[in-house]
Design a protein that fits this description.
Helices cover 33% and strands 22% of the residues. The chain is built from 21 helices and 30 strands. The strands form seven sheets. It has a seven-stranded parallel beta sheet, with helices on both faces. Helix 16 links the parallel strand 23 and strand 24. Helix 1 crosses helix 2 and helix 3 packs antiparallel against helix 4. The structure holds adenosine-5'-diphosphate and zinc ion (ZN) (2 copies). The site of one zinc ion has 7 residues, from loops.
């Protein structure tokens, strides 16, 4: 039998199947093959009886195992075609890195066994200085031993080794699968489902979908998901549940552990290689039937797949913006189709494109308009920061917010202060009149580029000088108005010396432990105020938080993304949803320089419907997605001239293509906003065209692009990118 094998090397030159001789193994099998001077791992993607090569020269493949099933392989084909990806890059998404070595790994775990003759003896050795060690040894004696990772999770990562050193326990290697965060289960609540929940569950279980659950924050979507998963389990079917990485909180994981025990495999980025492999292996063998994780969990090896859930479906993390680039929702749609599984998307603030699909009937819309709690969402109080500025207030806090913080602290309730921050982007604004620098051609906000001190439009490349005074009102204090989280914490400490304040942002997120710990500490009310960025916006359920303050509620509006209004609306809603989730009424105060902007107007009442109506009109008028497909062809090279000539050639070919297929909405060529990143010069061709036109010319565009990939120039295609760095 001739096996067509993709070898585990990611270069354009070997991006095709090679012929090998081998037994008749299933497609998707892993084999070991000689390749040049090396022995490599490969994947069988096809089989045939004959070869066009000289059969005496065709080499032998050694069968290892069969980790990929047919549906998954079809998914690989779908992705390579749709996104112009190398097959091996997609295959690598499907298997844990341990399987890229020939020997399938046996994982061992360290078990801590008590070795003193009694607990008392151990306690006397430990002494009284470390409460953690005392608690840990009691725990270990209680269970006659426990895994090291569990003890580390519960009593601090240094505790296990300290106990070993003191000679009260010894390490033992055992072959057992690591079940991450097993200790983390919280008490499962049994709840009586609300009518809205019952309806949602019923619709999902009796119809085909795909479904969009549009449910306000706190409407009990998670309970709906879990009930549907339960139903799948009873039919012996598996589920993939995707959440943004950021909402994989201890709470969320604990909830799923408590409800589903070992039936759930957790696949988050904090796992080490062995844990990841073990979870993957449990799924593949059917020992666990639920994969819970961020976007990469869409590739989980579940053979009898019944359900795919994408929670917070609007979240940007579902789009992979580096190689391999793909859109998780599209991949999920395809996987659901291949496996005849149901697809459920859920959000309080659906993506504009998704909601449009619900409106035109592509998705079945399920609405959950009310909170479960009897304390309903309350109107957001908007504070006009221009007014504050004119009144002489130069701090990031309004009088109203300070007043409410005081009241909340006095009631012994908690406060969250949210600062709008998005990665690299920065904008220029006048604090006196609210003027914002915009592109005169594209009507999107300009980004301030520190390295060359200019304002740039990310959509057409036009550059502008930074004005030295406001063109509208003449104010000279025009600046990029960003306040840092540290500064906010400092000011809060000054104002509220009695309060304990925690901070959570990219800088404090040094490890998954510190991130978990800050959230846990806040949940356990070890602090009164939590200050943070986007990272505190999602998914968390803190019952004692009754005040949420949003600083710079409009900041994301100034980022030069065509969907800036959408992300701003989403963020405000998500953050505001953190207040008053349990048995107390919550309050939200939003500070903004644009109190009358339509985003503020609709966000204030959580009025998604009207926001959508407005936004979809804006998109239509400006011809941005979903009315067009936005394509960026990104060219980068170490030598500037290589990139320049390539981008020019690609542009010419695209223009030629356009002349044969009819006009596109926009085609332009320029340097990328970040003209040099990681020592590579960057250029781009930007195309906007009607979605149906895109389907027509997609392969032609990929053909053009592939023609210009060399070892000196890399060329990538991005579909509907929002982050045009
Ligand atoms: P969402 O995901 O829609 O924001 P959650 O699923 O987190 O909402 O639910 C919000 C809160 O309401 C949670 O604390 C959850 O435990 C609780 N909850 C959900 N359904 C019910 C119910 N039927 N009865 C009582 N409490 C519920
Ligand atoms: Zn001004
Ligand atoms: Zn422009």
């Amino acid at each position: 039998m001739i096996l067509k094998v993709i070898v585990d090397l990611s270069t354009n030159a070997v991006d095709r199947a090679f012929d090998y001789l081998g037994e008749d193994v299933p497609i998707g099998s892993r084999v070991s093959v000689p390749f040049g001077k090396n022995q490599l791992i490969g994947f069988v993607v096809d089989k045939s009886e004959t070869t066009t090569y000289d059969i005496t020269k065709v080499k032998q493949a050694k069968y290892l195992d069969s980790p990929i099933d047919n549906d998954q392989l079809s998914l690989v084909r779908f992705m390579t075609e749709r996104y112009n990806l190398r097959t091996i890059d997609v295959l690598r998404l499907l298997i844990p890195s341990k399987l890229r070595k020939e020997k399938a790994p046996q994982s061992t775990r360290i078990f801590l066994k008590p070795i003193t003759s009694s607990l008392d003896e151990a306690l006397s050795v430990i002494g009284t200085r470390s409460q953690k060690q005392i608690d840990a040894i009691k725990y270990i004696w209680d269970r006659n031993g426990e895994f090291k990772t569990t003890i580390g999770e519960l009593f601090g990562s240094a505790t296990p080794d300290a106990l070993v050193k003191k000679g009260v326990v010894e390490k033992d290697n055992v072959h057992e699968r690591a079940i991450p965060l097993k200790s983390l289960s919280v008490k499962d609540k049994t709840v009586t489902l609300t009518d809205a929940q019952k309806d949602a569950i019923n619709t999902i279980l009796t119809q085909d979908g795909p479904f969009l659950i549009h449910g306000v924050t706190g409407s009990g979507k998670t309970e709906v998901y879990m009930n549907c998963i339960d139903k799948m389990l009873s039919e012996n079917k598996g589920t993939i549940m995707l959440v943004p990485e950021i909402s994989l909180t201890p709470q969320m994981l604990g909830l799923f552990r408590a409800r589903f025990g070992d039936q759930v495999s957790i696949l988050h980025s904090g796992l080490n290689e062995s844990e990841r492999y073990d979870e993957w292996e449990r799924l593949r063998k059917g020992e666990s039937k639920i994969a819970l994780g961020p976007r990469s969990a869409i590739f989980a090896p579940i053979s009898n797949l019944g359900l795919i859930i994408i929670d917070e479906e609007h979240d940007g993390s579902y789009i992979s913006e580096s190689n391999p680039r793909y859109d998780t929702k599209e991949v999920a749609t395809e996987r659901a189709k291949l496996s005849k599984a149901k697809l459920v998307l859920g959000s309080a603030t659906p993506n504009i494109d998704t909601y449009q699909k619900a409106k035109d009937g592509t998705y079945t819309l399920i609405t959950m308009p009310d909170r479960v709690s009897k304390y309903k969402l309350q109107e957001i109080e908007i504070v006009d920061m221009l007014y504050e500025f004119r009144g002489g207030n130069r701090t990031p806090f309004s009088g109203r917010l300070l007043e409410e913080i005081r009241k909340t602290l006095d009631k012994n309730e908690q406060v969250m202060i949210f600062l709008n921050r998005r990665g690299f982007a920065s904008y220029i604004r006048c604090p006196s009149c609210g003027w914002i620098a915009k592109c005169s051609d594209c009507d999107v906000s300009l980004s301030y580029h520190k390295e060359d001190k200019v304002l740039k439009c990310h959509y057409c490349g036009k550059q502008y000088k930074v004005p030295d005074k406001c063109p509208k009102c003449g104010n000279i204090y025009i600046k990029n108005g960003r306040v840092g989280t540290e500064q906010v914490v400092e000011l809060l400490e000054k104002n509220f010396p009695d309060a304990k304040i925690l901070r959570l942002d990219m800088d404090t997120k040094t490890s998954k432990d510190s991130y978990f710990k800050i959230l846990e500490d806040f949940k356990n009310e070890k602090a009164n105020i939590l200050v943070g960025t986007q990272m505190i916006a999602k998914g968390h359920d803190f019952p004692n938080v009754t005040l949420v303050g949003i600083l710079e509620g409009d900041a994301a509006l100034f980022f030069s993304e065509y969907n800036a209004s959408e992300t701003t609306f989403q963020l405000i809603t998500q953050v505001a949803g953190r207040a008053g989730r349990a048995e107390k009424q919550g309050k939200v105060i939003m500070q903004t320089y644009l109190p009358t902007h339509y985003v503020m107007k609709f966000a204030k009442n959580y009025d998604y419907e009207h926001f959508f109506d407005h936004e979809i009109n804006v998109r239509h008028e400006s011809m941005f997605p979903p009315f067009t497909k936005l394509i960026r062809i990104l060219v980068s090279s170490y030598e500037e001239k290589d990139g320049t000539s390539t981008v020019k050639n690609i542009y010419k070919k695209i223009k030629a293509l356009e002349s044969t297929t009819g006009p596109y909405v926009y085609v332009g060529m320029n340097r990328s906003p970040y003209k040099r990143l990681q020592s590579q010069y960057r250029f781009q061709v930007i195309i906007r065209l009607l979605p149906e036109k895109f389907e027509e010319v997609r392969d032609e565009i990929y053909k053009i692009v592939n023609e210009y990939k060399t070892n000196k120039v890399s060329v990538f295609v991005e579909l509907n990118p929002t982050d045009l760095r």
